[in-house]
């Protein structure tokens, strides 16, 4: 997997990583923490409503977040598209901040002054949409219990939710609620899109995060080291001359490629892709499944 068609996710991973490492190295962690008392009510430091979601207080949460974002957020962004995914991140962060303030007010009424730090709510909001949008690629059983390829990410998210209770647990619940609100048809958040000037600004700043294109993979045969192209071809032809099953082209000394047998997709895979891509024809879906080795690869083929 690469960052192809995932520039927002790459920017999130770089931004959160740089902020967390810089805050720890230069002792600025206290600027990325939010408390209702005294930060908001007494000192009126409203900028903390934004800064508390920009960095984690420890490197362990950062490590777990980078793993989850790389595996879940990229797949979700490829399905949504960068503009819709960026709008989802903005709305989810806004809703999470509002719910966080409400939770702090409720806790203060009971005499508890809570302190929050880290984009945990955003991470769980992305995980909620990922679980509802991206289908599981495979299932497996261990001692009678059935798991999917998503299970390791859910376990890592559970570790984060229990890392610094009760604050981390509250932020996790807030993130799930924000993710549900962004997907609800009864609320206006689902149809919101960032204005065009934001997209144009993001396009100009995109070179700052580097390329998101996948690396080049050569498809031509490379001669062995120490042999010229003619010598490598002669050696290959001599080694395989007596074995007709290898399909050797004796005129060039290079093994001739054999046609790959397309796999037969299951009805479950066809139904999953039909639900995810209602605009795609059945022929396009069958072609994507038949020319790839997994349903995830077929999803990437249809997105491209």
UniProtKB/TrEMBL annotation:
<feature type="compositionally biased region" description="Low complexity">
    <location>
        <begin position="255"/>
        <end position="265"/>
    </location>
</feature>
<keyword id="KW-1133">Transmembrane helix</keyword>
<feature type="transmembrane region" description="Helical">
    <location>
        <begin position="88"/>
        <end position="110"/>
    </location>
</feature>
<feature type="transmembrane region" description="Helical">
    <location>
        <begin position="12"/>
        <end position="32"/>
    </location>
</feature>
<feature type="transmembrane region" description="Helical">
    <location>
        <begin position="52"/>
        <end position="76"/>
    </location>
</feature>
<protein>
    <recommendedName>
        <fullName>Peptidase S54 rhomboid domain-containing protein</fullName>
    </recommendedName>
</protein>
<keyword id="KW-0472">Membrane</keyword>
<feature type="region of interest" description="Disordered">
    <location>
        <begin position="220"/>
        <end position="265"/>
    </location>
</feature>
<feature type="domain" description="Peptidase S54 rhomboid">
    <location>
        <begin position="44"/>
        <end position="180"/>
    </location>
</feature>
<dbReference type="GO" id="GO:0004252">
    <property type="term" value="F:serine-type endopeptidase activity"/>
</dbReference>
<feature type="transmembrane region" description="Helical">
    <location>
        <begin position="116"/>
        <end position="133"/>
    </location>
</feature>
<dbReference type="GO" id="GO:0016020">
    <property type="term" value="C:membrane"/>
</dbReference>
<dbReference type="InterPro" id="IPR035952">
    <property type="entry name" value="Rhomboid-like_sf"/>
</dbReference>
<dbReference type="InterPro" id="IPR022764">
    <property type="entry name" value="Peptidase_S54_rhomboid_dom"/>
</dbReference>
<keyword id="KW-0812">Transmembrane</keyword>
<feature type="transmembrane region" description="Helical">
    <location>
        <begin position="154"/>
        <end position="178"/>
    </location>
</feature>
<dbReference type="Pfam" id="PF01694">
    <property type="entry name" value="Rhomboid"/>
</dbReference>
């Amino acid at each position: 997997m690469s960052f192809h068609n995932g520039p927002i996710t790459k920017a999130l991973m770089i931004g959160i990583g740089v902020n967390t490492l810089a805050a720890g190295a230069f002792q600025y962690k206290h600027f990325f923490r939010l408390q209702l008392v005294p930060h908001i009510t007494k000192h009126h430091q409203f900028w903390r409503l934004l800064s508390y979601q920009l960095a984690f207080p420890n490197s362990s949460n950062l490590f777990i977040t980078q793993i989850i974002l790389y595996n879940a957020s990229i797949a979700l962004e490829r399905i949504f598209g960068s503009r819709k995914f960026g709008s989802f991140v903005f709305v989810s962060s806004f809703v999470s901040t509002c719910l966080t303030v409400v939770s702090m007010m409720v806790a203060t009424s009971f005499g508890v002054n809570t302190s929050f730090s880290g984009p945990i709510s955003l991470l769980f909001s992305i995980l909620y949409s990922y679980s509802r949008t991206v289908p599981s690629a495979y299932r497996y059983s261990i001692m009678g219990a059935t798991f999917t390829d998503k299970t390791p990410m859910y376990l890592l998210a559970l570790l984060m939710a229990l890392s610094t209770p009760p604050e981390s647990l509250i932020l996790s619940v807030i993130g799930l609620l924000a993710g549900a609100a962004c997907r609800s048809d009864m609320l206006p958040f689902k149809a919101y899109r960032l204005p065009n000037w934001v997209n144009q600004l993001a396009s100009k700043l995109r070179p700052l995060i580097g390329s998101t294109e996948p690396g080049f993979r050569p498809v031509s045969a490379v001669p062995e080291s120490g042999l010229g192209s003619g010598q490598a071809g002669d050696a290959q032809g001599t080694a395989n001359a007596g074995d007709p099953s290898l399909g050797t082209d004796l005129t060039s000394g290079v093994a001739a490629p054999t046609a790959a047998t397309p796999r037969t997709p299951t009805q479950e895979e066809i139904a999953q892709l039909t639900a995810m891509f209602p605009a795609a024809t059945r022929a396009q879906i069958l072609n994507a499944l038949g020319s790839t080795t997994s349903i995830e690869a077929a999803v990437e083929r249809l997105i491209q």
